[in-house]
Design a protein that fits this description.
Elements (H helix, E strand, L loop, with lengths): L2 H6 L3 H8 L4 E2 L1 E6 L5 E6 L2 E5 L4 E7 L4 H7 L2 E6 L5 H8 L14 E3 L5 E3 L4 E13 L2 E13 L10 E2 L8
Antiparallel strand pairs: 1-11, 2-3, 2-6, 4-5, 5-10, 6-9, 7-8, 9-10
Length: 170
């Protein structure tokens, strides 16, 4: 945060510190462009948003090509990262270009919708986008969950929880 931002709005610094303390999980979103390309995206702004039907919200930065892919092929898989699975953070943390192989060296399965599932994650949810909302610098997707899978470690491993120092950046 810059001094100019604090001078413009003296509450900016406090807002950033408090907003960053909202905990979130860590997930790997897998998706396809519908033409054979697949990718994985490290994400943390995912939350359950409804019981019936089971629905989650997924926030994606507007600068990500994944938004174009979801507009064309509105299906995805959310892989839940465990608190001891730092290899996923390292692998997906740098991001991937649209034509870059995102899953090399990882153990994969396939969801019923055909998308990659990370078999070493603690579990996964698969679903279809039902609503797309433009919200500032992110696009929020409401995703109806259609299927799920639990891996061996689901009951033994806690999900990774992420808390940021500042709510104005990842």
């Amino acid at each position: 945060m810059t001094d100019a931002a604090s001078e413009t709005n003296p509450q900016q610094e406090t807002i950033g510190r408090v907003l960053g303390r909202i905990p979130s999980g860590v997930f790997i979103v897998t998706a396809s462009d519908g033409d054979g390309r697949e990718t994985g995206l490290l994400a943390s702004w995912i939350q359950q948003a409804g019981f019936a039907p089971p629905t989650i919200s997924v926030a994606v930065n507007r600068s990500r090509y994944l938004n174009d892919w979801l507009a064309k092929n509105p299906r995805l898989v959310i892989n839940i990262v465990g608190d001891n699975q730092f290899e996923f953070l390292k692998h997906f943390g740098k991001g991937f270009e649209a034509d870059q192989a995102a899953f090399e060296g990882l153990t994969l399965g396939r969801a019923t919708n055909g998308l990659p599932v990370l078999l070493d994650a603690i579990g996964f949810l698969e679903g279809s986008v039902t609503v797309r909302i433009e919200s500032g610098d992110h696009t929020i997707y409401l995703v109806e969950i259609e299927n799920a899978g639990a891996h061996v470690s689901l009951d033994e491993t806690k999900p990774y929880v992420h808390v940021r120092k500042n709510g104005f950046g990842y």
